[in-house]
Specification:
Elements lengths: L4 E7 L3 H9 L16 H11 L1 E7 L10 H21 L4 E6 L5 H13 L5 E5 L1 E2 L2 E2 L6 H9 L3 E5 L18 H15 L2 H4 L4 E4 L6 H10 L15 H7 L1 E3 L7 H6 L8 E2 L9 H13 L5 H15 L1
Parallel strand pairs: 1-2, 2-3, 3-4, 4-7, 7-8, 8-9, 9-10
Antiparallel strand pairs: 5-6
Helix pairs in contact: 3-4, 4-5
Length: 312
């Protein structure tokens, strides 16, 4: 029998959040056909079918910023309180990555402290960009400093890129989510965020997106970054060995094969991406991970359970 899973990439959509999306014109968020259905009972049923012991809930794209800064702060507080309620209603089955009302950094730091200190959140979630503020932007330094001081976890989730729409009318998760994750985390590495905040754990989604494949190219072009005010080029390989990654999406075999070339098995975690990945697809993708020859029994146990239990 396969070991129980811990799911670090699981979403929830309480009714009030769904209504906030609809009120803000997000009936087809990021170009998908519709907001997927979600409720506690269905989520638990799928978790039982997948042998998921605990799912860490987070709000997916487009996050909580639909109106002004005050509305975003209120919605972040409400979804975080709701995730904590769900966790308490089903002991041991759920955790939470708290939403933050970025790019209002002062309000985001306040919500981070509330989520970690009062709610006992497992960490926080940030999208790959927040209205064009990408993850290497100096504006976010107070957030990173707080996470670093608490040795807490940042879970990154992709969203629609900011700027010119190059999706050609296709849903953004098809390609653009992967590119925006790659862009955002590369920006974090090159701007030195991971070096300045070594006690902050960062989980990159979807097996690292395109970053493992592009690591050698980034290294090759690193001399272009040389300037008198730089202490030295960032260590791309070192950063990839430090980052954590989930296996949401379709990582087997191509993405997982590339990921295993740049990081250790101890940094890889299971993720379902439910409900944005439908239940039937979650089952199929989990089976692919269970059966892949890229992971022996020990490695599979670490990916499904041990690594996440140690981290969270």
């Amino acid at each position: 029998m396969r070991p129980a899973r811990i799911d670090v990439h699981a979403h929830f959509l309480p009714d009030f959040y769904r209504q906030a999306m609809l009120d803000a014109g997000y009936s087809e968020p990021d170009g998908i056909r519709a907001i997927p259905p979600w409720d506690e009972t269905s989520a638990l049923a799928l978790m039982d079918e997948l042998n998921i012991e605990t799912a860490i809930l987070s709000i997916s794209s487009p996050g909580v910023r639909f109106g002004d800064a005050g509305a975003a702060a209120r919605l972040a507080r409400r979804v975080n309180d709701e995730a904590a309620r769900i966790r308490e209603a089903h002991p041991g089955r759920f955790g939470l990555f708290a939403s933050l009302p970025v790019p209002d950094v002062d309000a985001a730091v306040e919500e981070l402290r509330y989520a970690l200190d009062t709610l006992g959140a497992n960490g926080v979630v940030l999208e790959s960009n927040s209205r064009g503020v990408y993850l290497g932007d100096p504006m976010l330094e107070p957030l990173y400093a707080e996470l670093n001081a608490r040795r807490s976890t940042l879970f990154i989730h992709p969203t629609t890129p900011c700027g010119t729409d190059l999706s050609f009318g296709y849903p953004k998760p098809l390609l653009e989510f992967m590119f925006d994750s790659t862009r955002a985390v590369t920006h974090m590495i090159l701007s030195g965020v991971l070096d300045r905040y070594p006690e902050m754990t960062v989980i990159m989604p979807h097996a690292g997106a395109a970053l493992p494949v592009l690591a050698a190219r980034i290294e090759l072009l690193m001399p272009l970054l040389a300037s008198p005010d730089r202490a030295g080029p960032p260590d791309i390989r070192g950063a990839l060995r430090k980052l954590h990654f989930d296996l949401a999406g379709a990582p087997v075999p191509e993405l997982l094969g590339a990921l295993l070339q740049v990081t250790g098995i101890e940094n890889i975690h299971y993720g379902s991406d439910y409900p944005y990945t439908p239940a039937h697809a979650c089952l199929e993708l989990a089976d692919r991970i269970d059966r892949t020859p890229l992971l022996d029994d020990d490695a599979l146990t670490r990916v499904l359970t041990t690594n996440s239990r140690k981290l969270l």
